[in-house]
Amino acid sequence: MSEQNDDSVVDVIKVGSRKSELALIQTNHVISCLKDLYPKNKFEIVTMNTKGDKILDISLPKIGEKALFTQELELALENKYVDFVVHSLKDLPTTLPLGMVLGAIMKREDPRDAVIMSKKMKGQTLKTLPEGSVIGTSSLRRSAQLARNMPHLKIQSIRGNLNTRLKKLDDEDGPFAAIILAVAGIKRMGWEDRISEYVELTDDEGLYAVGQGALGIECREADWKILSLLEPLTDVDTTLRCVCERSFLKTLGGGCSAPVAVSSSLVEKNLTITGAVWSLDGQTLIKDKMTTKLYLPDNDSNEPPKKCPYREPRLYCSVVPGNISDMSLLGAEKLGKAVANSLIEKDALKVMSKARNEILNS
Ligand code: DPM
After folding, report:
1. What DSSP letter does each residue of 100-121 carry, written as one string?
2. Hey, which residues does 179 pair with through a beta bridge?
3. pLDDT digits over 92-116, tens only?
4. 288 catalytic per annotation
5. I need a surface site. Which of 10, 112, 249, 264 has the fewest CB within 10 A?
6. pLDDT (tens digit, 9 = 90+) per residue, 220-249?
7. How much helix, strand and coil, in percent to the nearest 5, is found in the chain?
8. Which of 21, 27, 51, 139 to mutate for ligand 1's pocket (most ligand atoms within 8 Å of CB)?
9. What is the reported pTM?
10. Rounded to 5 degrees, what are φ and ψ at 167?
11. What is the C-alpha to C-alpha distance for residues 17 and 38, in angstroms, rounded to an integer?
């Protein structure tokens, strides 16, 4: 009885999720981290199908909507039907709908891409696959990189959740020799033993999608209760890198409608980002790399983060700063912008709008 009267016992927290196995694995992971921190809280998952789950016969770039996998969940958030939603960060637009924020970005999994070979091609690599072998992907980024580096391969769109894709790959009568997927998703599904190689192409140094491998938790901007609950889940390194990557993408103005990729690192206090844009056929590649030193407190100092003293917390590409200093976040944001502007000077926007038109007319 005394438990019931305890002030710290709060209502059940409702967590929105897509219905796919991967989405549920990710949502359950976040809930289990929160249960470790707050053993008295209760969580309930509310699952939903999104437009992206329902439309399976049109390629994603052609649908061209930015919030394809998030819209229904965001509506549920807005209507207070759920309290937060766990997303793969790379599926989230760089600007969230009004009133929505990323309350936390969690520690990133391996952000690279990997190849899963069909059983009939076991032992092969992308390089050794016979001329004309079909690779399944609906990512423009992956197909542009493949077209550029592996011209002997054919690319064919493949849709559906990860389980569906693996089934299509293993179908004896199916067209696919291999598929390319994010290592993060493969690992979370427990399919690591199916990875046959990591995608490391000649001129790409393992470039990946903005935010790939990280989980973002979306909640209402004014919901301080949920915001303070989520704050300890923030991973400083991942958040700084992802703010930089998102600021790069935001400056380019790209959703998933053109082949864009990044690679980033934070070593000591040096934040580095490589950003790249391709033409659809991979023939044109515009790329640059920059580094900046961030104003991070030393690991052994107890110095509190420097906050803007006279304002509401500032957002960084819709990310709540958590316990990270504004100075370092501003540095990360500026670096992403600088690389994007350098690509723009080299005509990246022309390459991107050409890609968009080609998709719309295809
Ligand atoms: C986005 C892309 C893809 C997903 C585009 C891209 C891949 C689509 C495809 C924005 N979202 O990466 O260039 O390959 O046909 C997605 C996956 C994950 C999150 C699956 C994957 C899991 C990894 C993660 C789909 N979204 O990329 O293999 O959490 O980062």
Report:
1. EEEEEEPPPPP--EEEEE-GGG
2. 116, 136
3. 999 999 999 999 999 999 999 999 9
4. no
5. 10
6. 999 999 999 999 999 999 999 999 999 999
7. 35, 20, 40
8. 139
9. 0.92
10. -65, -45
11. 20
